[in-house]
Every structure is written in structure tokens, then in C-alpha cells.
Fold each of these.
Amino acid sequence: MAASALFRRRNRASLLCFLLALLAHGPALGSAQTPVYACDVAGNPALAGLGFCNGSLSWADRVSDLVGRLTLQEKITFLVNSAGSVARLGIPRYEWWSEALHGVSDVGPGTRFSSNVVPGATSFPQVILTAASFNTTLFQAIGKRWGRTQETPGEDPLLTSKYATAYVRGLQDRDDGDKDRLKVAACCKHYTAYDLDNWKGVDRYHFNAVVTKQDMDDTFQPPFKSCVIDGNVASVMCSYNQVNGTPTCADPNLLAGVIRGEWKLNGYIVSDCDSLDVYFKSQKYTKTPEEAAAKAILAGLDLNCGSFLGDHTEAAVKAGLVDESAINKAISNNFATLMRLGFFDGDPRSQLYGKLGPKDVCTPENQELAREAARQGIVLLKNNAGALPLSPTAIKNLAVIGPNANVTKTMIGNYAGVPCKYTTPLQGLSAVVGTTYVAGCQNVGCGTADVEGATKAAAGADATVLIMGTDLSIEAESLDRTELTLPGQQQQLVAQVASASKGPVILVIMSGGGIDVGFAKDSDKIASIVWVGLPGEAGGGAIADVIFGAHNPGGRLPMSWYPQSYADKIPMTNMNMRPDNGTGYPGRTYRFYTGETVYTFGDGLSYSKVSHELIQSPAKSLSIPLHADHYCRSSECRSVDAAEAGEICGGSSGIMELHLKVQNDGEGMKGSHTVFLFTTPPAVHGSPRKQLVGFEKVWLEAGGEAVVKFNVDVCKDLSVVDELGNRKIALGEHVLHVGDLKHSFTIGI
């Protein structure tokens, strides 16, 4: 379920399956007719005596009452996404599978658009571009609404964690502040180490991700942990792949042990669609389907997207492979979520969101938010001699060239629905100045380029905007990339147009993943490079806003862009994050990668020059109080276990304050600026070369300034994970980075 790209995020917190209880009137208790909504006490007084319909009871008591009234066969129908109905108890059918990755989607059976009721819904930028805004407030605002790089928030665990938390809370938190109830039940997926769809004959249905304990705990797991603990997400979805020899959906350590046990999930664990069938038939993990069903339930799976548990659980019980009590536990978690959604509270029209209707969809405010989200995410990567912004009065004729210049569906990527409306890049630019449009290629594959037409248009224009890149035919679910360069003859087209153009040439890249545009970065004939991700339904307007200066670009890359040599040398099947000097393996992501990049995580320019000044810095040294007989007092230690750091961990003495003055020099435009706080820890335990520990988005008027404050938690932000997965505080020199500023301090004992 979802899409894919070449070297995608090393942690998965991509979102979201969502649930909405849209129900109405039901029949009398005992009727064979299927009710429309549950617990219609007003229309069916006999239901009033059922404990699960009694809103004055606790969730636990209501769930226990319901489970106790069901037969084994009825219980099993609640283990699958298309949950069964129980007419004798006034319970209608329920469909768990709906999608809202970046707006309501029609992928899956739960949501359908109707031309005469709700023909479309706001389609926001794909996750990867929204993440480029580094604006947690925006993440949550959209939430009030993953080949697969496009579906992820990028390569950094902290950014991904903050995106997941904010988006989930935006979806789930109710407007009345009731923390026990849910507006929507969100789902973080795909758990875990799910980084390959279909690459050179290796697919996700057969792939065993071999992951070290260290990489698991400091890269793959943190976003899921934040999603559960900080976001209080209602669900986590396990993935198709195996991790270290065990299918994730059959791993009791990953499911019951970590999600339910360590992180205390308040909700349910669901499989990716047909995952159980995959590990039985494709991975041949068990000999019989009954064993496969039992292993999933015993591992802690509550809900099966698909029919596998519905088909094989009863036989598993009869064979003694799983007890009915385990099924009770699973469906109890599912029912508790439905209780929190109000499914068993009667007529939904009388509930908090019962008056929502078509008038609340595609509102002007939501459509403007989609445009603003795209604006905030767009990244300016190159801007020679201030070529951008273009002047809307000086430009009389703009050449708009490229296979992505007049696209619609490309802008919304995968797991999208039907947008309210589209504004293509051509439409957005044409609304500002006169344009001459040449596609240049029939599609992004660009088997043959219309060089003659494109160069003629560029030669006669005051400026040229080339809109190139990829679409779902290049990077999508079950389609990993093997090439990082522009597809087909796109690069040749760009180069020849740049040579022919009489005015500045702006290269716009529309893509989910990174592109090797080293040729353009180094070219004097290409003045500017802009990455627009997959910018959603209003992407064309947002692109025009940036190019013509109505918006000062403030986006920053959420993932590194690598040269083609990276794809040629690094197999996607190697899950190791850290470099290996013995084999020449360079590692992955900006945190560990030792090779060359085209652009790196956090890169981005604006139309303003912003300076940073350190106005309050932490002390130059910090001592960890250890008891008198601690072994580190008599032996040379390179790190200390965080659990042994005493008051440093959990107390105010472990918090370091960093205050910065951030100033717009006034020569450019007003706009937003992202302040990144990175750390370089001592070189122990294969620690990251550099790691993000915080970021803040600030708005600066031209010539304006702001004070940004970071509270750095020594144990949480500055610790590292050792080879066994233990959290350690590294002893020695630590360096904090903000832009060109550096502050060094020492941690000792």
C-alpha cells in the first residue's frame, strides 16, 4: 500500500489511514435487517439495556460487555478491515480502510467521491514538500485535513518525528478538547525498516531487511515512537517485509513488545493489506495458513487489512494454535477505538461533527492553505546574480517549457483523491505574464525531445522556465528508481534550451525524490534551480508566487540529493546507515554519508540574507555526577549510560539554553526563515557526523529580527545509541552548529 522511490527515508512514519464514523438510523433489536448506525436507542429502545450502548460506562466496561455478547464467528468478522455487522445487536458493517496522506483519498474502499454530493476535496502537497517547510504549525493545520520518498517527511529522524506527531494531532484532536475521544483515528505506517518496494528483482513481499540494533533504535524506530507517545496515534501498521528474518506482522517483539508494551499504544495494530497472505505464500514463513493467522494474533496484531484472518482464524482456534482469549484481546483494541470515535454513541448527526457536509469541503480557506503549504515547502537551490525573483512588469514574454509544465495529476502524486480544482504551473505563470508554452517532451520519459520548438521559444522570450522532473511512471509504489538523473532526454533538452535562451533560465524540478542536477548546478547558463516536490492541487499558483516574488522561498531540503554514482554503487538491499571503511560503503543520509552530494539535507536559499548571532550560550563544560564506585572513575570511559547519569537526565541541570538573534539584513524581502540547530558529538559508537537536534520557523520583516531559543536536553538531544542499542552520553567535545556559528563544550565526569 503506497508508492516508492530509490533511496528513500530510513525511517517510516508515513501517514495516514483514517477513520470516520458516518452512520444513520437502524432497526429494532433482533431484526435481521442490517442497521445503519450502532446503538440507535431512540429508534430501538431495546438497545438501551446493552452495556456497550451505555455512554455513562467506561470504555473498558462497554468493550467488555460487547465482546461478551459475541460468538466466536462474530468476533472473527471484527478482525478484518471490512468488519461484519451483527444485526441482533444493532451493529452495522464498518470499513476501516480509508486514506488521507495529504488530503482525503479515494484509494481503498472507505471513501468515494460523488459528482452530485462531494465531487472533490482539497489535495495538499505531498508529504515530502510539506516537510520541506519545517513548519510544525503547518503540519498540524493540514492534519486538520508515502517510489515512496514522496510519502515521507524526509531522511531525518527528528523532522519525521515532529511531522508525524503534529499531523496526527491535527487529525485526531477534537475541537472540544476532549482528550479521550477522537475526531479521526490516524495510523502511522509502515512499521518498520520498510525501505524497498521493487528494486532490481527484489521486492517488498520477499525482502528481509537486515538491520542492526543500533540503526533500529537511532534511525528507524524514533519516528514511530514519537507517533505513538507524543502524537498518541490510534493505530500503527506493520509492513510486508521481514526484519532480521521475521515478518513484522508476526513479530511479538516489534508488536506486543515495543508498540504495545514499551510505547503503550492506545489503539490497535493493523497489517498492511494482505501482509499475512504474503508471509504465508510468498515468504513461506509458516506451513499452514492457520499457523500464519495464529502467529499474527499472538504477536499482537489486532486488525488484518484483507481477509486472511477472516478466512483462517476459526480453524486456528479449533486446531489449538490460538485461544479465543487472544481474539478477545485483539477485537477489544479495535472496539475501544470505535468507542473513542463515537461509533457506539447513536446518531452521528447529534455528535460534535455531525453537522459537517459538502459545504465544509473545498472551502476557500482550505484551498488557500493548500497553496500556502506549497509556497512554504518550495526550495530555492540556486540563484545566480539574483536572477529570481523575475519582475512581472519587465517580463513581457515568458517561455514555459517541459513535460511537467502543464500537468495536473502529477502534482498530487500518489494516495490522492479528487482535488477541488487544479492550477497547473503554466496556468499559474500565465496569470502573471504572457507565456509561450512548448512541452518539449511528450511525457517525462522524454524518449524524443522537441529541441527545435523549445529552443525557438527560449530564444524569443525575456526569460525561460523549464519545468522538468518525474511522475508516477518513474517513482511510485512497486517502482523503485535505479536512475537519479532526469529521465530520457530531459537533460539534453535543458542544456540546449539554456544555450539558446536570451534571458535567464530557471530550472524547476517537480519530483518526489532527489534528482542529480549536478550539470545544472555547475552551469553558468542556468541561473536558478527550484525544487517544488509534488505541490498539490494549487501547485501552479505557488510556483508562480515564488518565481515572481509574491512569496519569499523559505523551504529547505528534507533529504539529500545524490549523484548517479551513488545509485550505481549503493544497493538498496543494504540497510546499514553507518559507513564501512573496510568495504568502502559510504553510509546513508547526511548524518552518516561520507561521499559527495549534489545538495544535502537542509539546503535552501531565499531572497533575503539572514544572519545569526549567539546571545546566550551554554557553559563550556558539563560534569555528570557518578557515584563514587562507578567503574568510569577508575577506568577510561568514552561514554556513560544515560540511565546512570543521575539528575542530569530528568532534571533541570541537564537542560542547556541557547539563545540566538536572527536578523534579515533588509536588502531583500520579508519572509520566513528556518533556524537549524545541529550537533556533532564525539566520535564514539559510530556516532553521527552531524545531527539535527532542533529547528524553529521564524517570520522576519525586511530588516527585522527575532530571538530564537533552544532548550537542549543533554540526555535526549546529545546522547548517542551504542552498538547494542543502548542510549549513551558521549564524553568529550560536543559542537553545536547554527548556520556558520559553532559553540563547543565538553561533557565529562
Note: The chain is about 25% helix and 20% strand.
Amino acid sequence: MTSLFSSLAHNLRGQLIARIVSFAINMYLLRRIDNDVLGLVNVRLTLLYSSILFLTREPLRKAEIIRGSLPKFINLLWLSPIISSMLSVICVYLWCTFSSTSEDVSWNVLLSFPISAIIESIAEPFSVISLRLESTSGSLGQHFAIGQGMLICVKRIFVLAGLFIFPEMYHLDIFAYSQYFGAIAYLLFNFIAFYFYIRNKSIPELEKFTSFSDFLPKASEGIDRDSMKAVFTMFSHSILKQLLTDGSAYVMTFTELLSLKHQAVYDAVERVGSIIVRTILSPIDENCNAYFSNTIRKESSVFSKNTDNHDDLVENLSTILHVVGVIGFVACVFGVPYSSTAISLYGGKLLSDNGGALLLSLYSGYILVTAINGITEGFAMASMDNYQIYSHGKFLFVTSALHLFINYVLCVYMNSAGFIVANIINMTVRIIYNWKTIRQYLGDRAPSFTTVLPTFSTAMFLGASLFATSFSYLIFATTPGLSHNLSHIAIGAVCLVILAQHTIQHDPVFAAIIDSLAKKHRE
């Protein structure tokens, strides 16, 4: 437990500041930049960029590619720039052919997003190494967290600086240059950092690498065929998973159901709602996926020292499910009564006058199911054999088609709120499938699904917090004025602190985590 949660702590700390800075800058951009530009950049162009990166990263980070030969493993990782380049050509063609606003974007702006994805993919081998070789020292975990945080933060800071330094520059061009700047900074950070790690021999997990050239591909070593098959199998899964994850963005990009203004509203609400997902849950998913993959694939002789025994695997699965479950319930309880306040503070009238509060309230429920799905899917994918992976592919194919259809239908009848409802349905179905796979793998030793629920006393505190914050909403939040908003926020803050203190002290799972981290810190 200690090694897993120690790496989680490093990842969370590394990305927290970057997320806060990015969040604050986005608040300013919503008030400064035209709504149509934000809708175009944050939904349509970002979808192009994220699709390329996701399909490049996901197979290499989650497939069973560790099979004993270190040089072959490194060679396989260096396929990432090739994969991203091929994907960029395909995705740009599809975007230009089918996107409803492709004629509104210059080639300079459009190409900046796939090119930045290619640049970032050159640094992907170092990210995969950081995740796969992460151990109790936490050094590589810190490197990965700092790199991801820097990538998030640098682009937004560049956009903010560009608005002040070049006030006459077209806003889309500023976003385009920020993509290049952030990607190059991320690439240099990884190359320079790993060069010094090897020169100073400061990272114990890298002891098998004698020089920086060991991180580079060697044609004479070739690539393990089984690992290559695993990557391509995971790649097909990743395509379907991407459709499931960003189905709403694809519907918005390739249809005209929502105007660019309403797309900007939806994206802004999603950014507010996903602050917990991006700041807390995403780092947890990243570390847990690597941990499950390393632990279950014990046949790897290269990385066998990084794996725990089977008992720890089951215990950590149960523990992390409980942790993300409680986080999800807390998000639901506080998300509903504070949605209107958060929307007003973050986006002003743009979000308040366009149904932002309703969207954020719905998103609170989505946080709970996506938190559980991230962990169950990571474990399920790591435990699948070839037949199960094939069956999972068929499941993803069917559910992705249904998900796109449900997104379209619900958007017609519910506008952008339909996207969130469709996502909740999608995540719930995936959780059921993943849990079935986990039970098949662990058998009688599988933890009860009720482990995601808070303890009885914590549930009582959650209920009391919901009552207090809802009453506060009726008294203060419905009345305009800064003092009323501050009073409403203060009541929520007090409830959250009391709830957190009780959970840490009286929830056995959280108490054990805090105790283990405290012991490691003292050591």
C-alpha cells in the first residue's frame, strides 16, 4: 500500500498547482476572449489534439509490453512519434472533410494542434518509463507529475502573456503558438531531466540504463512481436474507448446541434466540473493503471522487483475503490448546492444565463461514476487474457455506437445536458462490465462492490452536509450580493473541513493511508 499511495501523493502534488493556475487563467479567458473562439479551440481543435495523443499514449501505457528485454521495450516505445504522425494525417483529413467549421480555421492554426501532439509524442517514451519503473522512492513519479503539470500550465500562461504582449494578434494564432511552445518545453524538460538522471545516477530505478543512449532506439535489437501485437490490440480498444470518452465532443464537432457559443458554455462547465477529475482522479488513474499492469504481469523479469504480492493487489484494489468512491460522493453532495455559485464565479453571465448551473449539477453525478470506472477499467484491462480482450473489443464496439447515438438523441431533446446524461449511462454500463471481469479474475477473493460506499458515520456526515449546504443555498445563494455568496461558501467550507476531519480519523481506510504515508515521511 505504501508504494502505491506514495507515488499517488507525488503525482497529486505535482499536478495540483498546475491545475489551479490553469483554472484561474481559464476564468480570465472566459471574460476576455470571444465565445466562438473558445468553443472552436476548447472543443473542436482540442478534440483533434487529444484524439491523436490519446490513441498514441493509451496503448503504450496500458498494453502488456514488458516482456524481459529492455532494449526491445525501448524500441517499442519509440514507435510513438510514428504512430502520432500517421494519426495526425488521418485525423486532419477527417477534420477538414467532416467538421462543420473547418473552413473557419486557417492551416496555421489547424496544424499547430497535431504538430504539437507529434512533438509531445517524442517525449512519450520517457513518460512510459516513468510510469512503468515507478517504485518506492517516488523519484520517477515526481518527474512524471512535474512534466504533466508543466504541460498543462505552460500553454495557458503563454496564452495569457500573449494577450498582454500582443494585444492586436488574432486570438486563434495565440492559441496556435501556445501549442508549439508548450510541446517544445515539455520535450526539452524530459530529455534534459533524463540526461541528468543518468549522468548523476540519482534515480535507483534507472540503474539498468548505463548511458543516455540506452533510452534511444537500437535497430539491431528489434521489437518483441508479442508486445507489438499487444499494442495493436490495445490500439483498437483505444479507438473505441476514445469514442466513448469524448462522444459528446465528436457530436458537437461533426454536427451543428449546438452553436459555438453553447459549445463554449458546455466546455467551460466541464472544466469546472472536471477540476476534481483532472486534479485528483486522473493522477490516481495513471498510477493505478501502471501499478495494476506491473503487479499482474509478474512474468516480467526486468520489472519484477516493482511488483507486490497478490494479497497486496487485492487490498490495494479495495482501498483505492473506497477512496475514489468517497471522493465521488463528496463531489455529489457539495456539487449540487454550489453549482450556481461556482458557475457565477468562474464564467459570469455567459455561463449563468445559459444553463451552466444545471449542467454542473448533473456533472456532479458524473464525477462519481467516472471515478469508479477509472479504477475498475484499469484493473480489468490489466487482468484480461487474449480471449477476454477480444470480447472486450466487441463490447466497446457496440457500446461506442450506442453511446454516439444516445448523445445525438439526448442532445436533440435536452441540449447539452443530454451529453452529461449520456456519459453517466455510458460509465455505468462500463462499470458493470469491468466488475464482472474483476470477479472472474479474483474469484471469491474479489472485494465487495459496496467497498466504494462511505462508512455509516461518514454517510451521516455527508447527509448533514447536504442538508446544511442546501439550506444555505436557499438562504444566501438565491440572493444577489458578494456577502451572501461568501456566507454560502463559508458554510460549505466549514462542512467540508468537518467532514474531512471525521473521515480521516474514523474511516479505517483513510486512517491507514494517512498512517502509512506519515511513517514513510518520518523514514
Note: Residues 298-308 have pLDDT under 50 and may be disordered.
Amino acid sequence: MNFLRRRLSDSSFVANLPNGYMTDLQRPESSTSSPASPAMERRHPQPLAASFSSPGSSLFSSFSSAMKQTSQAPLGPMELPGPSTPVVQRPRILLVIDDAHTDWAKYFHGKKVNGEIEIRVEQAEFSELNLAAYVTGGCMVDMQVVRNGTKVVRSFKPDFILVRQHAYSMALGEDYRSLVIGLQYGGLPAVNSLYSVYNFCSKPWVFSQLIKIFHSLGPEKFPLVEQTFFPNHKPMLTAPRFPVVVKLGHAHAGMGKIKVENQHDYQDITSMVAMAKTYATTEAFVDSKYDIRIQKIGSNYKAYMRTSISGNWKANTGSAMLEQVAMTERYRLWVDSCSEMFGGLDICAVKAVHSKDGRDYIIEVMDSSMPLIGEHLEEDKQLMADLVVSKMSQLPMPGGTVPLPLRPWTPQTKPAKPPGQAQLGPPLGQPQPRTPTQGGPRQAQSPQPPRSGSPSQQRLSPQGQQPLSPSSGSPQQQRSPGSPQLSRTSGGSSPNQVSKPGTTLTSQPRPPMQGRSTSQQGEESKKPATPHPHLNKSQSLTNSLSTSDASQRGTPSEDEAKAETIRNLRKSFASLFSD
């Protein structure tokens, strides 16, 4: 202690200290500072010899402040960040393929996918679209439309498609099947599915599906009109009976249909089929009383009856009277059976004729491009919009758009590091020491039993390094290896051997006090230990630090890091006052 007083009374020693060195560690212990990160602690490289301006208790009070700050420093993340601001989801782009007579944007106004994502409607006809599809890049659609006399050119990547227009019609010379292929190539979901839209580009192909249902359900439950298919004009020699209806190619709205009364007219129509270079079908003419149309939009069913007023054999041509009729189980079976073709049809309609003899004949099925009729047009369009929103909500969200909830940080147990890697950083105020071999300093010392207490009474310290005696009243047994009186070794040993960062962290018996001979230790064990004021402060510091470590201990990695920090502080403190 006299050495410390002489050392601290030297004015040249105090003058050579860095600016603020003494004031930083002479803060009153009652002041509470916020937990500092290890990076903040490294800004003061010599926090160990802080309070040497006044001898006595100020030395250990300053050292206690530094140790408290070190024990309070968190080893992991400080705290979890607050709830992040919600990520604004980009609106989902819905491409509606339909003519300009219906403004579909108003039917999707206010609707959201999953109740939170906006829907942006882009509407155009097949003739106004072009696209490029990629394997990994999806489908890029180019749209050129004229709105109120202004040409609008826009490119976008749609997320969903509503098809309300025919993709192929021989009568109008419109063939947009390549666009359907491109949309399917880009993997875009649609109502109805693009697979079914492409299959509906040939009426005989669709009729073949009706034939399967006919054979499955039977003529009583599914009365299908009798029809004959010809791939070209050569097999068309005659019809089994007359009158017959000849249908050329693939057309809509009653186009390409001819009623043939006799064989001579039939031969004339055969020549027209040869000129058209297409396929044709013939079916028996049914003298109908009215037409029947059963439509299904999602889970909504409606049935209509249409009666011709003008007397035309085509009920959809000229004047006709339309009325809604009751939905019977027979009609429901028809439309439900047809809605299962091509993987499922969300929107479809079945057309049939009711003959004057009271029999029904199914003649055609339509997909999502069917025209809407009746007094419930607005309701049907709203049903289609709700169906599309429901389908969009069932789709998986694109990757990376929805942030995952942040999980609270939990310390993970890691395997013990090798002795040379346990140190978090260089000692405070010291360069990085060279890591000695494991057990080197310990092997140089002669193992001796502890001064007091048997091995069965020894307990591990919170740092898991050295066993401590259960008796805590004797300051001689609670001395820390980094105290000034223990820093000197016998036989000229270096004070750095007191605590090395490369020593193992396993439990070992505490070595005998260095700097004292065996005889002196024997004498000390005989006489009662007298408490020393400075050593009591060091003892209370070690006890308080051990208690805080035991309460804050989370995982072995935290205890290891804290123990290493304490050893570095003790080593720096010991080397500072060694000559």
C-alpha cells in the first residue's frame, strides 16, 4: 500500500496520464448510467487506474464503477426494434379482356384482395393487346387502346385475367389463340382458366365433351341433340333426314348456321364447305317452342326462357321474349355436369331447345365469354367481380412482398470456443497479447492444496473458473488474482501469469497465493485474518459482480465472455502497477 501511495503522490505520474483519464473513473457511484455497448467501452482505453489521485478508498470505488459498467454491458442485441411500419402492398393488376361497352372498373371499385390489397383494372380487347412471355419473368402485356379519342399505350404485368371475349371466330376473321397461348405460357391465372378458353376455340371439340357426359348420365338425364361431324366436304354426301341444320366451322351468335330443307340444298351447302376449307357439323332440326338457357356464375344459378316473336327459327335472331324461370334440379344437373369439363368452368351456360312435342335437347355450352341477358345484368356482372376477387384471394402472394413478423431474439447455445478464441477483443488499454499454450502457466506452478477448506466444501464461482471456499468472511480467501498484492510472483515470475486469456474455463482448484512463501502461508493460516479496508472493497466488488453475473446469466457463451472481460480487467490493473 505504501508503494501505491508513493506512486500516486508522484506529480509526474499523474501529469503523464491522458486528458480526462482521472475524471472518467471518479464519477460518483450513485449516478446511474445507461447500459453501454462494448464499442462505447473501448473508447476509454484505460478505465482501470482511474481514481489514483486520492489514495485509499477512492481507488477501489473507481475500480468498482468500472467493473459495474462492464457487468452491465449487454453481450447481445440491445433490444428489439419497435414495430416496423407496414409495407405498402402494390396493387394487384387485373386484366379484363372485353369490349368497351362495359366499364369493369366500377364493379371492382372498393374491392380488395384479402381485404387489404388494392385492385387495378386494365381493360382491353384481344385486338388491342400484345405480349411477351418468359420462363422466369412472367408475362409482359402491351396495351394500345383509344379512350375518348386519345390513344393510350401502356405496358404492365397482370396478376389475374378475366376473359369476357371470344378468342377465335371464323366468321369475323379473328384468331387470338396465340395470345391465349402466351398468357398460359406466362403462368397467369384466369377466369375461366386459359386452358378451358383455348379448348373452347373449337365448338366440335367442346361438343365431344358433351358426348362424354351424355354417355355417362344417359339420354334421360342429359338429352343431347344428335349431331354428325365432317372434317371436310368430301364425306358430306347426304343427310339421314331433312330438314337439318348445317354449322360451318367455329362461329358465334347464330353465324355460320344454315337450315337445309332437302337434298338439293344440301349439295349446294357442301360446295360452300369446300370453299371455306373447314370442318362442318349437321344436326337434326328441332321445331322448338322456346329456348332454354341455364347459367352458372360461381355458385349462383339462373334459368331463362326465350321465345321468338318474329317467327325466325333462330330464337336469338329477330325479336324474342325473355323471361326468368324456376331453377329445377334437372337444369342444375345439366349445368353442373358441364362446369366440370376442361378442369372446371367457373362461369358457364347451357343452351337447350324445348320442342313442341315437349322434349328438351341440349345443343351447346358456353364459357365465360357468354353474353349476359335478362333483367339482372348488373347483378351478374357484380357476381363475376366477386368471383374474380375470391379467386385472387386464394392465390399465393408473390415472394418478398409480405414481410414476415420479426421473432424476438433469443440467445442460442454455442459450443465452447477454443481457449485462444474466448477473448472478445484486446485488453482495455493493452495490445492483443500472444495466446499461450493451454495449461502452460498452470504447469509452471507447483500444485498445492488450498489454504482452507476441503475439496468437498469448494464451490464454483459464477464464472465457472476457480472454486471458492464457502466461508466468505475471510478476505484472504476472497482475494482476486488481479489485486496489487497478488500481482507479484515469487522467484521472478511475471505478473501476467496471474490470469491469462488462454487458460481453460474448466473448474480447477485455486492455486496458492503467489508472492508468498510456504512458511508465510502456514503462519497466515494459524493467525486470524484481519480485515483490510481496501481488500474488503475488492471482495465486495467480486461478490457483487458474481451476484450480477449469476442473475444475468443466460447461456454459457455469455458467462464465458463476461469471465474473459473480468480477467482482462484484472490483468490490465495488475500490469499497470508492476515495475
Note: The chain has 15 helices and 21 strands.
Amino acid sequence: MAAHFVPPATQDNNDGWGPLGIPDRYKDMPYQPFSKMSEWAGGSSINYAFQDRKYGGGKYGGAGGSQYAYLHDEEENSFQLVDTARTPRPMYARGRFLRNQRLARGRQNFRNSQPVPLKGGKMKDNRMRQTRNKWNNRGPRQGQIQVKNRESSVIVQPSWKIIEEMDFPRLNKLSLRLTKEATDLLTCGELEFYDKQYDRVTVKNERRLQRIDRIFHKVTTTDDPIIRKLAKTEGNVYATDSILATLMCSIRSNYSWDIIVQKVGGKLFFDKRDDSEFDLLTVSETSNEPPQEEGINSPRNLALEATFINHNLSQQVLKMGEEKFKMEEPNPFISEDEVGEVASVAYRYRKWDLDGGVVLVARCEHDAVTVGSAGDTQFINIKALNEWDSRLSGGVEWRQKLDTQRGAVLANELKNNACKLAKWTVQALLANSDWIKFGYVSRMHLRDTSRHVILGTQQFRPSDFASQINLNMDNAWGILRCIIDLCMKEEDGKYLLVKDPNKPVIRLYKVPDNTFESDDEAFFEEGEEDE
């Protein structure tokens, strides 16, 4: 017998869709809203009240179960929240009770106990521990560098009047593009040819640096007889290449320096002091950790060592005793008893038109000469970079990296000696040298400053090297022109430019006429009579 199917009763809604009323078994039952995120499993519905409190009803706002939640209305109204958290004490009161307890306990123990003397090794260890703690507490923290205040290159007298202060940020924004090329007025001296065998020197094939006793003339501007002669007919601003390089690269300097400025009859003469250390080469001047210790690695001893190395290297790499290249005129600084003992050097007196009626005349230098691939004569400036202690100067050890990573060695030198390298580059550009050649010289032993070895050489075109070290010559000329204009506005007299030893500031002082007196007074008196 087949089963009989009884269809359920249905309601026909002619006005819309859905049921027409609520079934009897669902009357007086509250409506439970739901959302798309509701769990349809029957066992999970017991967690609805907890989830509502935690997440605030869900994304769609209808996932609660508050209709079936049991609420204690009377108990909730009478309930009070008690804060059981500990009240934080101020910083000055923290640990005070414990400290007082420890102090009281220490005093009681001190009264009730007798000190036990230490004997032998225990006493020695205790004394060393106390000394070590004493110095550890007083000294700087680990990783901190205690920078000493540097001393000024000249003692500034109270009677000197400050005319102008020039800070480096302002000088760094100056710019002057020269519209005219420099012209040569006169060339003097004799040059020896460069020995190309030193281009093949490597770390494995090092050469011992020799001591060559030759005379190097470092004559200031007003003591130069050629400049004295040219001052009557050419220009109105006079200086040497080293003085100009110091002024043009002043924004890179950290150490103090000073330059005398004398204005006579509307003409400016830039001089160095006779007893100054102006010609000494600085070492690690722009390093993050400049040398500060005493002894062989003090700043002054390192400067003396670097100058000694530079002089010897510039002569050792030449073909000494062979034919020399002679300029138009002989060396103006050689006396009769110095013939044959003077270093190889040529002087080029040049003139620059800086516009606005400012004409600069300067003495520039070449160190050597060589023959190019086309048979032409090329002038060279030779400079020495010296390694004194790689642990204290960047951690780049030349004997390990010079042959394989020469760029890393040069980059470390550019960081530690940015000012010195910029000055050398400016001097080569002012002299119109074809090449600037660097020699890498290191100590034979770490603590021996008298014996050195040559580890290699490297040469650059001065203009290319200036671009490599970000040396902007327009900015350099702008700085020089700014200083010249400041001095030209003042009346005739003697002035002093001083770089502050600890701040990026250059100050211009008005000093009495008898300050730093030298033999140049007769020259200025003679010049005034001629006018």
C-alpha cells in the first residue's frame, strides 16, 4: 500500500511575499536578530552574550543575544567598584623605605660587629677593585668621545677690534664664476723629471722613504722680490697659492689658522706670520675622532711628521742628478751658498681678473715635470698621504687594502683629511698643473715616526679630482672675493683673519700697525714714498 502524502497548509499572499501572520506557536516570543556573522551551530549560541560585550555587536550590529541574557537589575544598582591597584609613588619617594631599612640594618650591624682586616692578596684585590670603580665612575661613558677644546693659532689681544664675523653656512652659499682666464706674468726656477718607476710600487714591492736634505723656501707674500716688483705695475691684491688655498677652502677647516692682511694705498697684501705653523700639514683634521692624545700621535707631532714625509717624497720620486727643466728666470730665493741644495720647484706668477676692479696676483708652485705620451711637457704637483695608526684613523689598514681596494683607502683619506686634500687640489688648479700625484706612505713600525715606506702612488687630473671630492671652485672664488671686499672697505692699516679653533667662524680683527713687525715695514714705507 502506497504512503499517502498530505501537503502542509500554505497561505497565499496576494499583496506581497512572505507569511500573512505569525503562527500560534510563535506568539509572545521575542524576536532574536541575527547577522551574517552569526554561528548557526546550536552549541555556539551560548557564547553570544560574551561576544557582544567584547566586540560591541559585530560589524552589522545585530549579532547579539541580549534578549535571552539574564540581568541582575537589583544587584547591579547596588554594586560598587573597588580600585585595588597600587598607587604609584613619585620618583623621589621610590625605594625610600627600603633604603631606610638597609641603612638602619647597616648601622646596627656596624655596631654589633667588628671589621675583619684583609690580608695579603685579598687586600690587594679589594684596593684594585675600589680604584677601578673610582675611575669608571668619573670617566666618560663607553662610546662617548670627550673632545678637547682646541687652542687658537694666535693669542687674541683685548685691544684688537672685531670688524666682521663670517660663519661657514653663509660662506658656503657664495658663488663667483670667473669670466676671464688667468694669465702668466713670469715663471722662475728649475724642475727635475719625475721617475716613472715609482708608478709600479706596490705593497709587496714597497720602497723605503729616504731622507733627502734639501732646502724648501716658504717665503711669504711681502718678502717675495718678484711680487714687490709686480706690485708697482700689476694688480691690487697679492698672495701666495698656499694662502689663497687656505682662504678658498676655509669652510672645510676645523683647526685654527690666521692670516695677516695689510692694506696700503688701496692694495691688499695677504701674509703669514713669521713664527706661525701655517706651512705644517694637518693630519686627520676632519676625522670623526681627531687625534687628541699626547706623545708621538699628538696633532702637532703628526703635523711635523706629515710635513717631513711630504718634503722627502716630493724629491725622492725625481730623477736627481740628471738634466733639469729650466723656466724663464732662475729661482729668486737662492743665495750663493745654497746652489745645488735647493729642492726642485718652479714658481709661476699669475694674474686673475675678479671683476669690479679687483685684480689678483699670486705666486704658484710646481714640484716636477714629465713628458706626456705626445711628447709634450706636463707639470706635476706631488703630495704625500701618510698612515700613522689605522686603528685611530678609520680602521682601514693600507697594507691589506691598498693594492686591492685603493678606492676604500682614498675614501677614508677624503673623510679624515678633506681640508688638506681640497687645499692641494686648489693649489694645483691655481698653478695650472697637468697632474696631481699622491704617494701613500706608512710607518715601518707603529710607534716609530722616523722610518717610513712608500706603498704606492696614484695620480689625477686636478679638475677631475676636484669634481670627485665635491670641490666647487665657484664657491671658492666667491669666498675669496667676499673676504677681499670686506678688507677693501676698511681704511689703510693692518688686519688679521683668524679661524675660531672650536666654532665654524672666521673673524676679521683690526690690529695695531706694529703688531707682528717684520722686515716688510721698509717695503711698505718705500711703496708710500713712490706713490
Note: DSSP finds 14 helices and 15 strands in the chain.
